[in-house]
User: What shape does this take?
Amino acid sequence: MLPARRSVEEELDRRVLLIERQRSAVLAAILATIVLGRGIYQLVYASATDGLLGRGYILLVMAVWVGVETLNLISVSRRIRDGRAPAKSHAYLRAAFEVAMPTAMLAILCQYDRPLNVLSSSIPYVYFLIIVLSPLRLAPMLCLFTGALAALGYGTLVAVYTESLGHEWIGSAVIEHLSFVMRSVLLFGGGLAAAFVSQRIRTTIVDMIEEMKERERIVALFGEHVSPVVVRQLLYDSDGEASHVRDVCVMVLDIRNFTTFSEARPPDEVVRHLNTLWTFMVRIVNQHDGIVNKFLGDGFLAVFGAPLSNGSGDCANAMTAAREIMLGARRARDRRRSVPDGDRHRTARRPGHRRQRRVGRPQGVHGDRGRRERRLPHRGAQQAIRVDAAHIGPGAASRRYRRGAHARDDAPRPP
Assistant: This one.
């Protein structure tokens, strides 16, 4: 079984146990109410008439039924707590036991009363109560089994007392036979209907679980580079395909002398080094309501102000994130003494100049339905980089590189 399918089946089993616990609680409550009501009625009228012979045994059978449902409730609760899967064989045994209860009550009363009165009383409706609750087990075959067993139990009693029913019935014998046969057919038909309902409920729940798992997978995938708040907005925003014009703040980050560093190291070490850096850098960007829009090899382009925006605080968030990234990069450099001193990290702004520039460009969803990406159009990103070059200048950048290459590791650096 595929891991994804196994995960869905495990979640479905957990939900089946939760529903079974609720079902047992509902059935036990209904039966306890009936036992209480009939017990009061028996106490009031038992001494006044002899027409209640055998009712005490019925109360005893129902009391046992309530006790079994209570024990099942406790057992299912333990399974849920221990994380165990439901046992399918137990479900069929429980269904057989539940159907046997009204059959036993009818058989007992037929010994003390006329079979026609008993088989036409309200007790056969207990079969329908069991059948109505059977779809909650999310097992169509179990529902069909319950309906067939109920029809068989009631039909067997009718067949056993056919002669007595013929003597007691007033009217056409054909109508009498048709009346009791149709009750058995309706019980079986109820099982068929319950099986259909159970299959529909099961399909709906499976689809819901698969959708939930897919959302979790998407959130986990995007969560590596995008904050959970942004992911939720992308998933649940009903206007997700509309483009918006916003003022955004763009921060460009790259690693100094990364080519020289990567040429002198094996690929796996280079990848580990990048992952170490991206782990805390992306987290810092996310913490300040930014998103990493693009990874550019040994750097990335982060956007502040889309899709989340704090209004006038977007540039301040970008500045704070840049400072924290620089501090984190220094700490990572100190922990990794084997990294060359020239392997420094910088944001694409020089101290003393404006580090961020608002770029008013459309920001929206691009791509087809199978692959969406909320990003800046290329012209917006290119203009941000051109603004960077205009403020730093090639001469200033090279001077800063030279100063960084000859500085001591413990010397203070500008943010």
